Amino acid sequence: MSPESIPSRRRDFLRGALTTGTAAAAAAAIAAAAPPAHAVGATAAFPFEGEHQAGVYLPAKPQAASTFAVFALTATDKAGLKALLQAVTDRVRILTAGGTPTPAGSGAPPADSGVLGPAMPSDGLTVTVGLGHGAFDSRFGLASMKPQGLGPLRIFPDDVADPAWLGGDVLLQICANSPDTVHHALRDITRHTRAWIQPQWQINGFVSPPRPSGTPRNLFGYKDGIANPSEPDGLVWITPGSGQPEWAVGGTFIVVRLIRMLVEFWDRVSVNEQNTMIGRRRDSGAPLDGSLERDTPQYAKDPNGVVIPLAAHIRLANPRTPASDGTRLLRRGYNYVLGQDPTGNQNVGLIFACYQANIQKQFEAVQERLAGEPMTDYIQAFGGQYFIGLPGVTGNGFLGAGLFS
Amino acid sequence: MNQEVTLRRQWIATGVAVVASAAVIAIAATGARSEPPATPEQSTAVVSVSDAACGSGAGARSAGPVTFTLRNDSKWPTEVYLVKQPGLGTLFRSVILGPGVSLNERAVLGPGSYSFQCLQGGQVRSISLPFAVTGEVSSDDTPAIKQASSGELQQSNNLYLRYASQTLGTMAPQLRGLTAALASGNLASARLYWLDARQTWAGLGAAYGSFGDAGDNIQGVRNPALAPANDPAFTGLGRIEYGLYHRDSAQALKEAAVKLDKDVAALAGQLRTLPLVPGSLPLRAHEILEDTLRDTLSGQDDQGAGMAFAITSADVLATRATVADLAGPLESRRPGITATINTTLDAVNTALAPLHRNNSWITLADATPSQRRSVNAAVSSALEALADIPQLLALPQGSE
Question: Can you give the residue ranges of the Dyp-type peroxidase N-terminal domain (chain A) (predicted)?
Fold first, then answer.
């Protein structure tokens, strides 16, 4: 599919030959991401130890609340980075297990903020830790261990990059069933790590409840996240022999991309046009050639895009061909709300987080396919970063231990 | 609660307002009634405080975590400590319990002999018979911290007042230089003298409110509802900074400098004999840098000079001085703590080093985000270490 063949971009009349623009890294998120978990309860707990970190495939449905907190490393050497990762590991182990905090005694302030009450519930908490390319610069002596393809977030032609929301060395992706549990975890971890990391940007997200059923809706009103690769498909975790450093095996590349959704503009567009931009029906979530949310689009039967246009978001993002199969990625989308902008519009959108074994062959390949799609006019990607999600921890180890062995 | 905040900020004992009475705090403590109980643990015990006995109900038990429900069955507001024998180090201090009030306190008990102490009006009134704890704990047991006394902290206060008096003495020639520079209309020179004096004042550890009105007049506190030029109560270093960076006339600023000089001389005259609140110095040890982070590194208290890093540097000096003055009481409770704290303060100086050459400083606005983060990281990390000082040296409630 070449960009020139995209037929229906609404603004093409005004923009002339703009169809060659690569677009909307954002867009991949908008029509997808796994259905979220609900009513998991305060006692829901996901084990910290494992071959892989939680917060990617575990739990299968994203928790209702999240924050993506990104930090700059203020540690100045390898020992500082190691101390950071050890301290983060200690805290995440304690926080995800839940329980009554060990009392600090009379010689220190309280050990815990008390935000979750005297006995903190695990509340479905997961904390997923990633490192940006800055952790592999000259400060820490780890340049030779830098994963291939880990650089700054690629800026695509239709993005509206805002430096205040770009970059960062350390990602804490904190997800839980309630926002107070997310806040509590972030506050606890930063308390124990102040010397080594300082906040760079942070955005909170939520997953809506099913309306009325099935996959939750994004802020365009569409069910978002219907199709994701399963874990046995082998597209997410870094494996031996993939050309990545050995320490990274069991990890995954995390792309965080902040996508504003211009909802006022969107609301002034007919639902039929919305449906053809997405490729699904707004009411049911069904693909335009089906009748149920879970129906699989039959693109082979519609080679000219009569029913599902060739430039529909779901068709560009996942053409369901043998060639595109390996470009699929795991998505966990979170809606965000940041108030208003100077024009009087709401500043809302999607925290698009995706997970893959190869950033270039998966995330970037999908974005290149989406270049110039009709939905581009209604979204603006403005921030984010690429991270290497660290391998999981087994036994008494710590996150990123393989960097120091 | 407002009263408690005021108490904490005040150094000078100036009468009823700064002397916490047990009764006043007891009223606040009744708010604890609505606190939900802690989740039941393996080991719990109800401990009664009565007019006849302190802490009946705590029998011999196994080592490990325990939740005590403290219940005041007496007629009097009572503070309850769990102490370890011998030495009577404190594992926890309750708030003051009003009559009829219960609350939960937790500790991890290592093997040994323990008692409850009951205090009223800051004085130990009774102590329970010891109870034995046997066995081992898997995690760290709660440390027993020797209770601080007013007399012990008075020695530290005396050390501090000597330091403060010497420091304030160095302000006089700086203010004379400032006045002379303003008299000759040399604003560039005046700004240098102002910075010297501002740093000296910060080096005193004069977190706002520390010296009451005398301190406020020297520091200069803005009325946020008024423009600085129309705020007659806005004086001292802050007002002069504002004028130096907002094109006020040198003559008008000279008058402010003369008044500042008088205010400093007046405080210097009183300083050695100021009756400090005994427990204030441990609070000051962490509040100086709390103010640095909140007011200075945020840019909130800047009046135009942008000298946040220069002031931070002086605040570090002041913090070092207070920690040094408290070193004896601190080290006897947690050996090595002053070295640990000084390491964190050294890190602040390391972060500040690229931001100045001698006393010529980059402004807060000109610093890169990375430079600001380095300073913020070091200051906030130091604060985590300093936060233990007031806890280690807390006086019994009502004894201040």
Answer: 53-206
CA distance B34 to B103: 10
- Crossing angle of helices B150-169/B280-291, nearest 10°? 50
Q: What pLDDT shows up at residue A9?
A: 62
Looking at residue B43, its pLDDT comes to 83
Residue of chain B nearest A197, judged by CA positions: B377
Q: Which residues pair with B44 in a beta bridge?
A: B67
What's the confidence (pLDDT) of residue B196? Answer: 98
- Is residue B6 predicted with pLDDT exceeding 60? no
Decide which of 3.40.50.2000, 2.60.40.3230, 1.20.1420.20, 3.40.50.12280 is the CATH code for B151-392.
1.20.1420.20
Q: Which residues of A touch B140 (CB under 8 A)?
A: 102
Report yes or no: A102 at the B interface, CB cutoff 8 Å: yes
**Packing angle between helix B150-169 and helix B171-183, nearest 10 degrees?**
30
Find the helix or strand (DSSP H, E) in which A334 lies. Answer: strand A330-340
Q: Report the run of H or E that residue A186 belongs to, with start and end.
A: helix A179-191
Q: Whole-number mean pLDDT of chain B?
A: 87
A170 within 8 A of A196, measured Cβ to Cβ: no
Q: Which residues of chain A have pLDDT under 50?
A: 1-7, 14-39
Q: Spell out the domain ranges in chain B.
A: 2-146, 151-392
Contacts of B349 in chain A (CB under 8 A): none
Strand partners for A380: A260
**Is B391's CB within 8 Å of A196's CB?**
no
Q: Is the pLDDT of residue B4 over 80?
A: no
Write phi, then psi, for A206 (nearest 5 degrees). -140, 150
CATH class of residue range B2-146: mainly beta
Residues of B in contact with A103 (CB under 8 A): 65, 92, 106-108, 142
Is A114's Cβ below 8 Å from some Cβ in B? no
Which residues in A196-231 are b (16+ Cβ under 10 Å) and which e? bbbebbebbbbbbeeeeebbbbbbbbbbbbbbbbee
Model pLDDT, residue A29? 39
Q: Which of A81, A106, A115, A194 has the most B C-beta neighbours within 10 Å, making it the best mutation to test the interface with B?
A: A106
Contact B108 A72 (CB under 8 A): no
Measured at the alpha carbon of residue B267, what is the angle toward residues B266 and B270, in degrees to the nearest 5? 95
Is B388 close to A109, i.e. CB distance below 8 A? yes
pLDDT at B42: 63
Question: Closest Cα to residue B156, out of B278, B268, B275, B271?
Answer: B278
CB contact under 8 A, A109 and B381: no
Q: Cβ contacts (< 8 Å) between A198 and chain B: which residues? A: 373-374, 376-377
Q: Residue B380 phi/psi, 5° resolution? A: -70, -30
Gap between the Cα atoms of B17 and A72, Å rounded? 45
